[in-house]
Design goal:
- The structure is a single chain.
- The chain is an alpha+beta fold and about 240 residues long.
- The chain has a single domain (about 20-235), classed as Ribosomal Protein S5, domain 2.
- The chain contains four helices and nine strands.
- It has helices at about 85-100, 125-140, 170, 205-235; strands at about 20-25, 30-40, 40-50, 65-70, 110-120, 150-160, 160-165, 180-185, 195-200.
- The longest helix has 28 residues, at about 205-235.
- The radius of gyration is 18 Å and the shape is globular.
- The termini are far apart.
- The relative contact order is 0.19.
Length: about 240
């Protein structure tokens, strides 16, 4: 079990998230939009649709097609990055679709596509999880029928200590047992996980401890998502 008194590189406890920022309705021309940030990692998401899918032969007559596009903006990182999505971005786009699809009622919109555009404005690790959180909020803001929100965060290790919501410095930590990045997404008010993606090593016997750590973090994420959506409804 992770000790909450453990101090990390940036002074946080092992179970402590970076400051969360969550906003909805940031892109007026989108059907739904949101911003979600873990500290210096900032993601925005815009939803367009449901709308007719072209070309027609790609349409599914029984349900909507969810199409996610994740991209790390070239100015979001200090190192040089070519504009446009690379292979990693394409992979994250696909796992984001898998993370979000289980909560969506895609059967209500046959023959259509729901496009989710995710852009990382600033990156300090946790970009795919911040993007999933932003996209979940944007889909709810667009009025897409959902059984619940999706919450996502990464867990890892600093030496042998389990930690949640890693920074880039923690993600690259190579002392002790080495760097670990375990991206997890779950349906907010259930025990259903929609993404488990591990880079590095986590011993099987401590996976339950990782999930317990993530579950606590996801409760905080859900409250931030819910608060942002309620604020829009009040306006």
């Amino acid at each position: 079990m992770t000790k909450s008194s453990f101090k990390r590189i940036d002074g946080r406890k092992s179970n402590e998230l970076r400051p969360i920022t969550a906003k909805v309705g940031i892109i007026p021309n989108a059907d739904g939009s949101a911003l979600f940030a873990f500290g210096n990692t900032i993601a925005i998401a815009a939803v367009y649709g449901p709308r007719q899918l072209h070309p027609q032969h790609k349409q599914n007559p029984t349900k909507a097609f969810l199409r996610c596009n994740y991209d790390l903006m070239s100015f979001s990182v200090s190192e040089r990055k070519k504009p446009g999505p690379n292979r990693r971005a394409q992979e994250i786009s696909k796992v984001t679709e898998w993370a979000l699809a289980p909560v969506l009622d895609l059967d209500s919109f046959p023959g259509t596509v729901i496009d989710v555009q995710i852009y990382i404005l600033q990156a300090d690790a946790g970009t795919r999880t911040a993007g999933i959180n932003a996209a979940s909020m944007a889909l709810a803001h667009a009025g897409i029928p959902m059984k619940d929100l999706v919450c996502s965060v990464a867990a890892g290790k600093q030496d042998k200590e389990l930690i949640v919501d890693l920074t880039k410095e923690e993600e690259d930590f190579k002392e002790g047992e080495g760097a670990t990045d375990f991206a997890i997404a779950k349906v907010a008010n259930s025990d259903e996980y929609t993404l488990l993606q591990l880079d590095g090593k986590i011993q099987p016997n401590i996976v339950s401890d990782v999930l317990e750590l993530v579950n606590g973090a996801c409760k905080e994420i859900y409250e931030a998502q819910k608060k942002a959506l309620k604020e829009v409804v009040k306006k």
